[in-house]
């Protein structure tokens, strides 16, 4: 039976491209926002959600982290890292010499990945944030009479019939985004066309209040066990200024000794710890194009 995969739509977002690589033969279900994707899994409408969590230029996608911590607790069952290439595109009717956009539309992360380009080429032109890069491309395609542009990927230009005026407008050549796979059940990755980068375990750690040196002690619990951390990030608890939790990625699968031992040590320090997932990590090496 085919799985239903909720993803940040509409068709031809970067998330759509990531889904096509990881789950080429499953049924795709576009959703308007990241919380909608996660809700679809929680409510049983979809089996799996694929949502962006971190970009190499712009950092974390906070809504993904916050929604999984504060609203809907679903385990992370995988991650995939894909290259991101942003292009500047317009409706073919507007692709004429001397075109100057009145407004440029895209997803906030995409706009942030192209700040230098926007500052240099289109200083003073307002950028408006929409729910995804493909939503921006779709909008531009539906309003041929307006002098507007979108920043999106090549597939979105094809899908919505736009003309790419400038390719690769992201500010740094190493531009990759990490997407996570969220599901109630463990996920079978047979058939993926990606490189397996090993396993990871993601923990959420809340430090005890007013405990001097707590973060140092937390990190030592990993350090003396020689557990390699690939990410540590703090996010507000949303209970008061200065109250934060930490998301920690450990570069190994959940075992029976080292990670449980670390968690016991952290709990003995007064921390609250939960395991957000233990999962395989994949990478797509070349810019993705759907076949
Ligand atoms: O708008 C899209 O195409 C998305 O898939 C979202 C998103 C993001 O949230 O970071 C994904 C990858 C890129 O970094 C830009 C935008």
TrEMBL record:
<dbReference type="InterPro" id="IPR008242">
    <property type="entry name" value="Chor_mutase/pphenate_deHydtase"/>
</dbReference>
<dbReference type="GO" id="GO:0009094">
    <property type="term" value="P:L-phenylalanine biosynthetic process"/>
</dbReference>
<dbReference type="InterPro" id="IPR045865">
    <property type="entry name" value="ACT-like_dom_sf"/>
</dbReference>
<dbReference type="GO" id="GO:0005737">
    <property type="term" value="C:cytoplasm"/>
</dbReference>
<keyword id="KW-0057">Aromatic amino acid biosynthesis</keyword>
<dbReference type="InterPro" id="IPR002912">
    <property type="entry name" value="ACT_dom"/>
</dbReference>
<keyword id="KW-0028">Amino-acid biosynthesis</keyword>
<dbReference type="Pfam" id="PF00800">
    <property type="entry name" value="PDT"/>
</dbReference>
<keyword id="KW-0584">Phenylalanine biosynthesis</keyword>
<dbReference type="InterPro" id="IPR001086">
    <property type="entry name" value="Preph_deHydtase"/>
</dbReference>
<dbReference type="GO" id="GO:0004664">
    <property type="term" value="F:prephenate dehydratase activity"/>
</dbReference>
<dbReference type="InterPro" id="IPR018528">
    <property type="entry name" value="Preph_deHydtase_CS"/>
</dbReference>
<feature type="domain" description="ACT">
    <location>
        <begin position="203"/>
        <end position="280"/>
    </location>
</feature>
<feature type="site" description="Essential for prephenate dehydratase activity">
    <location>
        <position position="177"/>
    </location>
</feature>
<dbReference type="Pfam" id="PF01842">
    <property type="entry name" value="ACT"/>
</dbReference>
<feature type="domain" description="Prephenate dehydratase">
    <location>
        <begin position="4"/>
        <end position="184"/>
    </location>
</feature>
<comment type="pathway">
    <text>Amino-acid biosynthesis; L-phenylalanine biosynthesis; phenylpyruvate from prephenate: step 1/1.</text>
</comment>
<protein>
    <recommendedName>
        <fullName>Prephenate dehydratase</fullName>
        <ecNumber>4.2.1.51</ecNumber>
    </recommendedName>
</protein>
<keyword id="KW-0456">Lyase</keyword>
């Amino acid at each position: 039976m085919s799985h239903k995969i909720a993803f940040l739509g509409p068709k031809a977002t970067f998330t759509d491209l990531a889904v096509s690589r990881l789950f080429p033969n499953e049924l795709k279900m576009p959703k308007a926002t990241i919380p909608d994707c996660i809700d679809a899994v929680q409510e049983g409408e979809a089996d799996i959600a694929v949502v962006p969590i971190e970009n190499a230029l712009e950092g974390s996608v906070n809504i993904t982290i916050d929604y999984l911590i504060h609203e809907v607790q679903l385990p992370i069952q995988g991650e995939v890292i894909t290259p991101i290439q942003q292009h500047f595109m317009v409706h073919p009717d507007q692709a004429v010499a001397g075109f100057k956009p009145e407004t440029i539309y895209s997803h906030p992360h995409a706009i942030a990945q192209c700040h230098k380009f926007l500052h240099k080429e289109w200083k003073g032109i307002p950028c408006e944030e929409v729910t995804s890069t493909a939503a921006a491309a779709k909008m531009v395609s539906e309003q041929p009479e307006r002098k507007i542009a979108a920043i999106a990927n090549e597939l979105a230009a094809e899908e919505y019939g736009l003309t790419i005026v400038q390719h690769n407008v992201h500010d740094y050549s190493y531009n990759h985004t990490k997407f996570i796979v969220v599901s109630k059940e463990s996920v079978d990755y047979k058939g993926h066309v990606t490189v397996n980068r090993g396993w990871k375990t993601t923990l959420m750690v809340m430090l005890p209040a007013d405990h001097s040196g707590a973060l140092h002690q937390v990190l030592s619990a990993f350090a003396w066990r020689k557990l390699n951390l690939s990410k540590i990030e703090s996010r507000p608890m949303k209970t008061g200024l200065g109250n934060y939790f930490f998301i920690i990625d450990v570069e190994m699968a959940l075992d029976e000794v080292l990670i449980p031992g670390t968690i016991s040590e952290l709990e003995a320090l007064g921390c609250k710890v939960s395991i957000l997932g233990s999962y395989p990590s994949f990478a797509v090496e070349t810019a993705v194009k759907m076949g």
